[in-house]
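Model: Ready when you are.
Researcher: Fold this.
Model:
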Amino acid sequence: MRVLMRDTTIRTTTLPGPSKILPVHDKMLKPAPGTPFSILHDGLHDFAPSWQLPVLHSIVVAYNMRKRFTKPEHTFIQKILAHLLVALGGGTLSALLTARPVPLFTSNTLLPLYLTGHLLIHYTPFLFPLLTALSPLWEPLAAIIDAASRTWALTHGLDAFRAHVQYAHLSRDAIVGQFALGVVSVTAGGIIYKWSASPVGRYTWPGWDFGVVCFVTGVYVAYWDSSTLGVGKAAGGWVGPWVREYGGVVGLPYSVTGAEMRTVCMALMAVGFLAGVWAPVVAGGGGGATGRTVGRGTTGQGGWYAQQQQQQQGKGKKKGDAKKE
């Protein structure tokens, strides 16, 4: 079943069978209370708009920056600018590309909250050593925080792009544009930082998290775009029986609206990021919070990045030895 929000109605497509236009009812839009899906749904939509998520996300970004990229010779300004680029660079770039207000300049709280997280990690004596000691617990939690922050930015950014007053009639049908914009909005900052920080990994595949973001963005774009309804029906025919059989266990609603789809995307992204944390070999050595810079606008680059440097150093040593001989 695939449901698309259109003003005060939803379009319900049941497989097989024609589409029907039905009125929206509160019971139809809300997942069953007390289930894992409803807890995730309520947690995301209550927690993400608050001030706590930016602070926690800023702590996640600063933690990974300090652990893997910050050097003693970096100045205070250099660390602050790198932090803001990684955390907010993708959202800022996507807003500029689509002539939308830049959140960093239109919010009175965003910059102070992200600076707070940075200062806590770099200038609080006990916090960074404590998180490092608790990394087996902290880094999976950091991956979930990262997934919540990126999902919120990704979905709301695409919603604003499709609803833009001047070009909404064009953006709604621009599937490729929506996909590219969504990926840029939550990965560009980290990619720019990685490619500019070292020539070793420049213009290469960004890492495991980038693939996860691409997959989730494709799911969200396909959900909203009417031209992909045939693909959605084909996929629904394959997964539909599984959803009907096991979806009720976790509380997945039969009719999925925009809010529920945002929750599904967050769950998919969190599972993908956690896979990188717990299986770094599968993730190409650069997935998850253990091997990447985490944050809105970032992508996998930590362990993979270190491997690339070691390979380049090994090649340099071999060339030097050959010249000596």
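Researcher: Now this one.
Model:
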Amino acid sequence: MSSASSPPIKNRRYSIALLVATPKMTTIAADEIALYRRWLARLGQENSRHDDVDVIAMVQDVCNFRWACDLFLQHKREEAFQLWFQIYDDSKADVLGDLAGFLVHWCYAAGVGIASDWNEAEFVMTDWEGKTQLHRELFEWCQEGNGRGNWFCEFLLAQCWIHSIGAPSCNLEYASSLLEQLALEGRAVAQCALADCIQERFTKSSADQMMMTHLYFAAANQGYADAMYKLAHCVEAGLGAVMNRVSLPCILPSYLALSLK
């Protein structure tokens, strides 16, 4: 994660370890609490309504969130998921809780760090959009993971561009370019997300409708529940006949070259 904003403490490594290891710690001096409050505010986390105990918990959550992101890039996905879920489930920090919810949602959807479960993924829906320092850190982490060749970080980076999570603006075109290769690799979550990008268009050509249906079909054929639901709507709209005309790898690259510019 970005080191632009670090906890205002003399020995950061020791203090983070202490915060992570001591969840009930409540005896920090008042001047340090004031520093923590200012640090949280710089990260974009409002804390004036919270008491000192909550502030300490928020600092712990930020440290745990960053630690979980580091663990994920070390291929410790299950441990990372558990920390993200804990933050989402009980954090006093609303911004951080929302971002942890974003990661938990897509972990459930993609089956990363936890068994795939769309019912759980659908239940975990938080407010993702934002441009606070915490949002920017998540965006930069996704970029770092993508640069290391981590497919899930590439997928999350696309979601950041779609939902303006730390990204300069919404950019469906660039998000679609990130999702294209993942879709061709057979990643059901990416196939469905790419179809969603097409679905977001106000007007859709017959090629759009065919490609969208093919993508939902490809993901649904792997048991991806969200794609099954959306494919049913495509069939109901009379688009089911296009599904078996041609295979997805044959049509996706040329379609994207022409239609997603």
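Researcher: Key takeaway?
Model: The chain has a mean pLDDT of 82.
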